Amino acid sequence: MDRLVIQGGSPLSGEIRISGAKNAALPLMCASLLTSDPVQLSNVPHLKDVTTMLGLLGRMGVQVSLDDRLGVELRAERISEPLAPYDLVKTMRASILVLGPLVARCGEARVSLPGGCAIGLRPVDQHVKGLQQMGAEIHVEQGYIAAKAGRLHGARIVADIVTVTGTENLMMAATLARGTTILENAAREPEVVDLANCLSAMGAKIRGAGSDVITIEGVERLHGAVHAIMPDRIETGTFLVAAAATGGSVHLRGADGSILDAVLEKLWEAGASVDVEPGAVSLAMRARPRSVNLRTAPYPAFPTDMQAQFMALDSVAEGTGVITETIFENRFMHALELQRLGADIEISGNAAIVRGVPYLQGATVMATDLRASASLVIAGLVARGETTVDRIYHLDRGYECIEEKLSQLGAKIRRVR
Ligand code: EPU
Q1: pTM of the model
Q2: How far is the CA of 327 from the centre of ligand 1 (A)?
């Protein structure tokens, strides 16, 4: 199993390019199921989750061709079997994103229930409820969501909670439904907007993406499109926090600072100078970071996917920070591992009280999920001595060439197989 070995203590410095967003790429690939024409995506990140999704779509009969310049063409001329099996869904919850497109296009789908997840329960009841309101008959049998429908019809769907993939699933399904669908309490994440832009380029009629009410007027058919995937805001935020924690200075090319307000605000509060320009974000940190308090919530508030990285930053900051997690009920597993590096963290319900210590000390730690592993890498970069981060397959799910990028910024990091 691959591990990362990090020799801490070098401030990150230099320039790297930010990749396309994982959480935009996954729904965009599923959107190809909605048309028999080719959908061409560029700026596709080279990630384990993307490969898993390509495998899943390929098994359904989607023709996949890759070029050598981060481009993927997906052609779902015929869908041979509208099935997402357990062995794939269990490794990647985002597989649920095939449900809406399959029901809309094929009138049926069998998608495994995702099951246990390291960061919380993460049910999919809102996806199911929305599709039922659009006329699908859905049962759970042998661990699978089995859906059947004639042509879906428009509906007014009020989500009980804000869900990102739930909004994306229903928005995709609604593009081919008869009549108008209104999604209320919709997720406002930039990845939802990126998906809406691609669907619109495919001929869908969508208004309001990026707000909490999205209106979709169904059309008879969609056609192919060419779409460039948006930059990854969480990868951007992760490198910014890594630079801030190590007292470094970085320039991130291809990043979009306009979708990172809540994160940049906290970095300013921590004492960093951040500069946003079109197509790039830079950060410089000259002193020991100051602790920040934060509370995760749906976009545009502070993202849960940046919570673990800020816990690493608060661990070495001056003062005490309180981190409150409101999205996932079990997303503090990194706290225990950070403690093994010498962090002073007390968990109380959904809050973590992080008392900054002057330094962390290298040790072997274990990654429990994608963003937890990013926080351990950041901690390893600031710790004295050597840190080994075990189980980094979690990291490979969402960070393209992370050790190459960190090396480019001067980190002493190597992968051991
Ligand atoms: N929820 C329900 N019922 C549903 C759907 C969600 O109760 O039907 C609950 C979840 O249990 C959770 C909350 O609603 O407590 C929010 O979950 P959401 O559905 O928004 O999460 P998701 O769509 O499964 C996406 C990202 C996650 C990110 C969350 C929150 C993708 C592929 N995944 O997940 O990304 O943490 O939104 O922003 O877009 C990551 O990249 O590391 C990651 C986990």
Answers
A1: 0.97
A2: 8
